[in-house]
Design brief:
By secondary structure, the chain is an alpha/beta fold. It is built from 19 helices and ten strands. The protein has helices spanning 2-16, 23-32, 42-47, 60-80, 84-87, 93-97, 112-120, 154-159, 173-176, 213-223, 240-248, 268-282, 310-329, 331-363, 370-379, 386-393, 404-413, 433-453, 463-466; strands at 101-105, 140-145, 150-153, 179-184, 193-196, 226-231, 256-260, 293-296, 426-427, 431-432. β7 (256-260), α12 (268-282) and β8 form a beta-alpha-beta unit. It is globular, with a radius of gyration of 26 Å. GO terms for molecular function: GTP binding. This is Sarcalumenin. InterPro entries: Dynamin_N (IPR045063), EHD_N (IPR031692), G_DYNAMIN_dom (IPR030381), P-loop_NTPase (IPR027417), TRAFAC_Dynamin-like_GTPase (IPR051943).
């Protein structure tokens, strides 16, 4: 598949223009141009629907119902079996109601900040993100909607429980000093949030950043709806930090988009070579059948350099904007699917802890040393058929099972005797935790997702009107 993309793009380059100036000539023109004209933004505004006056869809009813399903059916089991200590992923109300998040990753000075400036039209304004040829962005910058231009410190963002960034406080005060928020009154930010990240510098040790950079990146990766990994023709090498980043992106291939930026700085032949070199560098890191989509263009406000593939670059840019708009349009479907995926993981974790506990109780005798018995179980769970029992009886996919090694650390800080069996997690009024989460996975969340697909007005799904336990009516059924 990687080879097919290289061949297809190469043909597009060869066919898009008959004559090209040498690369040296293009670079000389770039250096000599003191003032460049601004690019037309009409395609950007039309593709992202920034000129439409119709009000945004009101999903407050759906979000209210989703929040209630999470708190009543998922969170009790999540807290009882301390799932957050296994996955380090605690869902807050702010995260449930948050807008889609677009994350920008990549080496330093490849144009991540310039791309955000271009998408939002922040160039030549007091709040444009600082750009330059040297490493410029040393902070995690969150660009979000607000009534007026305003900068928010990281400690304020973490302290505000209404936002989705309060869990970032666990990464320490050094990190919060490197977190900054910018509120901008822009129509696009009413529907999406951008996150700009520090560029990857391979010759700098991670410890020198003063905070766990990879852990922070993982936090944003886990919550991003779309991930742009940006490169430019001069920074295609893959070092240890970039390799670690792609390991963290495993399982999120559907959200990843690769961007080869500053493409108009190269002539045809050089661009073909750079495109091939990019795939050569990334091929060992993206071990999937279908590689991520690659966009080749120059994402900044200035006109494309003359005698370059302007039509091709414009089409690539429009395709990327359509991709971004699709994520925005599907934000509620993605949110519900994310909560359901989280519920599945919580259920599997609870079943495994229950199986560990049941095995421990079965092996304990009056004269047994509890610590030695459980150590034997944790060291070799396959000997006691812990995972095989879960697969055989509970309709769990083997591909969803957590790593066995993770439970050694988990039970190292959480004694097995501190948990209750699932059969004991029931009450007369509240029901059983396991039954409630299974109902949410198999009925409530799919029904909520289906109600959006059926075209219902989300506002009528308010819990005050229909009741959150009620199944939405089938609009296609004749009365």
């Amino acid at each position: 598949m990687l080879e097919n993309q290289v061949i297809f793009f190469s043909r597009a380059l060869l066919c898009s223009c008959s004559t090209r100036v040498p690369a040296a000539g293009i670079k000389q023109e770039i250096e000599e141009a003191s003032e460049t004209s601004k690019r037309d933004r009409s395609h950007l505004e039309s593709t992202l629907k920034l000129n439409e006056d119709k009000p945004a869809d009101d999903f407050s009813g759906v979000l209210q119902r989703l929040r209630k399903i999470y708190h009543s059916s998922i969170k009790p089991l999540e807290q009882s079996y301390r799932y957050n200590e296994l996955r380090q992923h605690e869902i807050t109300d702010g995260e449930i109601t948050s807008k889609p998040m677009v994350l920008f990753l990549g080496p330093w000075s490849v144009g991540k900040s310039s791309m955000i400036n271009y998408l939002l039209g922040l160039d030549d304004t007091p709040y444009q993100l600082y750009t330059g040829a040297e490493p410029t962005t040393s902070e995690f910058t969150v660009i979000m909607h607000g009534p007026k231009l305003k900068t928010i410190e990281g400690i304020v963002m973490a302290a505000d429980s209404a936002r989705s960034f309060s869990p970032l406080e666990k990464f320490g005060q050094n990190f919060l000093e490197k977190l900054i928020g910018i509120e901008v009154p822009h129509k696009l930010l009413e529907r999406v949030t951008f996150v700009d990240t520090p560029g990857i510098i391979e010759n700098r040790k991670q410890q020198e950043r003063g905070y766990p950079f990879n852990d922070v990146c993982q936090w944003f990766i886990d919550r991003a709806d779309l991930i742009f990994v940006v490169f430019d023709p001069t920074k295609l090498d893959v070092g240890l930090e970039l390799e670690m980043l792609f390991r963290q992106l495993k399982g999120r291939e559907s959200q990843i988009r690769i961007i080869l930026n500053k493409a108009d700085s190269l002539a045809t032949q050089e661009l073909m070579r750079v495109y091939g070199a990019l795939f050569w560098s990334l091929a060992p890191l993206i071990n999937v059948t279908e590689p991520p989509r690659v966009y080749v263009s120059s994402f900044w406000p200035h006109e494309y350099q003359p005698e370059t593939h302007q039509d091709l670059f414009l089409k690539e840019e429009i395709s990327l904007l359509e991709d971004l708009n699709q994520v925005i349009e599907n934000r509620m479907e993605n949110k519900i699917a994310f909560i359901r995926q989280h519920a599945i993981r919580v259920r599997i974790h609870a079943l495994l802890v229950d199986r560990y506990l049941q095995t421990y109780k079965d092996k304990m005798t009056f004269f047994s040393d509890g610590e030695l018995v459980f150590r034997d179980i944790v060291e070799d769970p396959d000997k006691f058929f812990i995972f095989k029992t879960i697969l055989a009886k509970t309709n769990v996919s083997k591909f969803d099972l957590p790593n066995r090694e993770a439970y050694k650390d988990f039970f190292g800080i959480n004694p097995i005797t501190s948990f209750k069996l699932l059969s004991q997690q029931c009450s007369y009024m509240g029901g059983c935790f396991l039954e409630k989460i299974e109902k949410a996975i198999t009925r409530e969340l799919p029904d909520l997702l289906g109600s959006i697909g059926l075209g219902k007005k989300p506002s009528i799904l308010s819990c005050d009107i229909t009741g959150c336990g009620e199944t939405p009516k089938n609009r296609y059924r004749k009365p």
